Here is the input.
Amino acid sequence: MIDEKLSGEKDAAKITEISKTGYQLLKDNKTSDAIDCFSKILLLDENNNYALVGMGDASRKIGSIKEAVKYYQRCLEHHAGNNYALFGLADCYKAMNQYQKAIGIWEQYLLHDDKNITVLTRIADAYRKVRDFAKSKNTYQKVLDMEAANPYAIIGLGHLHYDFKHYKEALFYWEKMMNTDVDIRVLTSIGNCHRKLKTFSDGIIYFETALARDEQNFYALFGLADCYRGMNKMEKSLEYWAIILEQDPKNKMILTRTGDALRNINEYEKAKTYYEKALNIEFDIYAVLGLALISKEQKKYDEAITSLKKLIQQDNKNYRLYYELSDCYLKKGDKKSSIETLESFQKLGIKNQKISDMLESLTRT
Here is the structure.
């Protein structure tokens, strides 16, 4: 009996030592060596909580999320309520975009530690991902009630309001972070709010500040190009579209935007080149629309009409296509077809002010 006790104590001491080594190796990013350590422990004690969590953490670190889930679940089967297993399991579900499952696990965690700010912010983030505005906002607020200047909650509230198109409210939260060593992502987020609010000159300030920190930052370059586009400064926007294309020459959206900017300054042949580059990558409705609009500007109305009709077959709820098609008919002198085009859009039951105004103008004269 005494020998068994001594043997058990030796095993326990050995497990503790191997466990410490394993976690240190994990911390040092020596994941395969850490896995070896935890595997040795499981040979001695197949349901050891430290080893099972360690294996889960190691699996997660190398991207084997489903394998990590198995280890965390196995740990919880034998050690119900293990905080580290709960935390790891919830993070796995989050990584797999299974936010409701992640929320359920984190709420179990809160039964043991309901003041854990890290867990609360993650729950708030998850509620944001599943678009539950009220629960997300209330959970972020719980964090701020405990720690008024918590940056994760403040930034999260900014993202929450932005996701729901409450751009002024998003600005309110993100601008609170400007007194700190602000993260570049906050700068570009504030810039994006100004883009959405069409206060483009204000947005430029933030995007330029971000670009001063990282001259290759995609979001800052895109934001600047789009702000200048919104201000109708197409030549300036082209400078930034060009920089993005140097980094990513096959970016279909940027190729199309470049084509749009060139079309707007009447550089039709150059614009066609960019639209065609985009279409060589993959079909793009806006590239085809751009080519149709060039045909329209060049008074090739039948060519434009053919393209626009084909686009409507693929995207029959896009008001812009009906508007441009109607305008092509009008420029051809076919008022009847112009009106019929607008009426066919209205029959879809979609309200659009530009369509309504154009139809009213045509039927009044």
User: Anything to note?
Assistant: Residues 2-27 form the longest helix (26 residues).
